[in-house]
Amino acid sequence: MRLIVLTPPYNLILATVSFELIAECSQTRARAGLLHTAHGTIETPVFMPVGTLATVKGLTQRDLGDELGVRILLANTYHLYLRPGHELIRSLGGLHKFMSWPHAILTDSGGFQVFSLSALRTIDDHGVIFQSHLDGATHTFTPESTVDAQLAFGSDILMALDECPEYPVSHEYARQSMHRTLSWARQAKEHFDRRLAQSQDLPNPRSALFPIVQGSMFADLRRECAARLTELDTAGYAIGGLAVGEPRPLSMEMVEATEPVLPRDRPRYAMGVGMPHELSEYVGRGVDMMDCVLPTRNARNGCLFTSQGRVVIKNTRYRDDPRPLDENCRCYTCTRHSRAYLRHLFQSGEMLFAVLATRHNIQRYLDIMREIRHAIISDSFPEYLKCVRSAATNAE
Amino acid sequence: MRLIVLTPPYNLILATVSFELIAECSQTRARAGLLHTAHGTIETPVFMPVGTLATVKGLTQRDLGDELGVRILLANTYHLYLRPGHELIRSLGGLHKFMSWPHAILTDSGGFQVFSLSALRTIDDHGVIFQSHLDGATHTFTPESTVDAQLAFGSDILMALDECPEYPVSHEYARQSMHRTLSWARQAKEHFDRRLAQSQDLPNPRSALFPIVQGSMFADLRRECAARLTELDTAGYAIGGLAVGEPRPLSMEMVEATEPVLPRDRPRYAMGVGMPHELSEYVGRGVDMMDCVLPTRNARNGCLFTSQGRVVIKNTRYRDDPRPLDENCRCYTCTRHSRAYLRHLFQSGEMLFAVLATRHNIQRYLDIMREIRHAIISDSFPEYLKCVRSAATNAE
């Protein structure tokens, strides 16, 4: 392990999001760092809970910030653009004020949702025309318009519009699509820089834009995309198009192909991943930021992640189980309630189940990230990774 | 106003629930008191939030107890008997432990739910046979079995099985039904005393049974029922069969007919009432305890009660309203969020809406009860009542 102090340029600290490397693992690509934003500093590697519509389903902002210690969350441009609309959010002072969230916010570009949720989408080099999944109305996203929407939100980190191809696609399609994503990223960056330079009426002038590496499951395309994107010299880089149905070893291969091309002094964000035992795998491959709906969505469906493995709470064996969900967990749910009560709430369709389950699952994810970070800093990450792998194998 | 110290008999304090009168209004029948239970003392008049299935929908027990200051809540025998079952709850240490609620619990007898929810019910003097609204299975409630279920819960206050007639019914039907309720109350009391005397395996040996005054909308039947019930010398009395569709002046008349017959030194509980502006009306007629699903159910439906009247949050006028729901309210929702954000959550069907709205509505009800109690103790209740009536008239 090496302890590092990479002081970012002074103007970078003031002007935008900046990244500070604290430690690197001596054997893997894992790193620990600090991500500075206008809304506080975030310890990395970090897992970002998903607050699609300006709320993490079932949790209050106080639960998230004060109790769970979340310092950055993700919101969805596609959803918030459709409802309540970015102009409304800007008129109310931006997303932080709108949802009363004092910490950092990352918004995705909406590209992924356009491809996964909306009907009748038409894509060309100009952008994407789509029908709202809410009312069928037609909308257009361009690299410029999604930057504008995210600037109206006042997001700390904005994502450039990308095309996220399904899995599998041909090399030829993936290449064309990757080039479109590349050229959209350039347009987005130009527009972002111009808007920031004008800097009028922006809820958050200290934001940063991250472009997204695509290329489907082709290492050559991933490498090419990453190399070209780094020319944009952005404050961070995302790896998109993962966890879209491909086998997990392939996702890992794509991260391995991409990571060495990305600059060491910028954060890397793997979008939409992953399962609890996968978090350290991504970190071991050089990833600093992740997000996923798994802990929140699975919580609502009765699937709980504990330090001893998964608990599917509807199982009859928990009917009269007086033990906490996870004896090693210090969350409100585990310190106050039994599995029997949680099962009763789930079986009865009670809202409190989602509230308690989500709180626990987020706590579990954040605990894992804290363990990972501590392992990197204390140079025991390779051993930690070994333990996680062995536990995951035993659980299979 | 008279300040009173009515010390309850010593054995009553130890053995069961007891009531202490603190102040009586000099002009109305309003009283302020203290209700002592094995799970703490409750200031009366009190509004009890409804936690049907051992949860107040959308709130954690910590929200309720520590933040809102709820000291007694209501749970439903019918629902908990069907799911998860009273034997399971007893085996897990009783309802307080099961739901992790350190304060008092009142459970109704299940009679009202049998009549309002279940199909194919057959009633005779023995009890009521009904089909579960969940799976159609046949069950029987008797005065004894509902006492047993509530003793298994370890409720602080149990309710005797009653028949709650719909509105309207004939005087003849109401008379027969009232006599059935009377005789069930006697059976329930006998059984309750016997079980308590044996006192084995009871999660809460310091509980009390309240019988329920019925008689539909006939003052003579109400008076007769109340007079006969007082012979049972129970720790408190309930007035049931209100708010079942009758015009509100009739409900008030029934309370007025009943109240003078009930002993002054015991708490009176008006079941299933009422709207915010009605709370002081019931208190002014001598009621000490109330419960209602209105604040919680209306919250989930987007109807919010504020110090300035009702807010129907879906209304377009709140779309960009940056003000808190109620500027006079100190709840989490009002101190942290805008109407615009609440409307967005409601329109999006987000769970956080129910969480925030329920929290506010319960706070509003408890604030009203605190105002009422303060007015009684400071002998300004008649003026308070006048203000409430004038505001309610203006709102019409």
Q: Helical element count of chain A?
A: 16
Mean pLDDT of chain A: 94
Radius of gyration of chain A: 21 Å
Q: What is the helical fraction of chain A, as a range of percent?
A: 40-55%
Given as residue ranges, the uncertain stretches of chain A (5+ residues, pLDDT < 50) are 8-14
- Total strands of chain A: the figure is 18
**Class computed from helices, strands and strand pairing of chain A:** alpha/beta
Largest sheet of chain A: 5 strands, parallel
User: What spatial form of chain A do the alpha-carbon principal axes imply?
Assistant: globular
Distance between the termini of chain A: 32 Å
Q: Strand order, biggest sheet of chain A?
A: 5-16-15-14-13
Approximately what portion of the residues of chain A adopt beta-strand conformation? 15-25%
Largest interface comes to: A-B, 37 and 38 residues
Oligomeric state of the chains?
homodimer
Give an account of the 3D structure:
Two copies of one chain form a homodimer. Chain A starts with a strand and ends with a helix. Mean pLDDT of chain A is 94; it is low at 8-14. Chain A is of the alpha/beta class. Chain A is 43% helix and 19% strand. At the A-B interface, helix 14 and helix 15 of A face helix 14 and helix 15 of B.
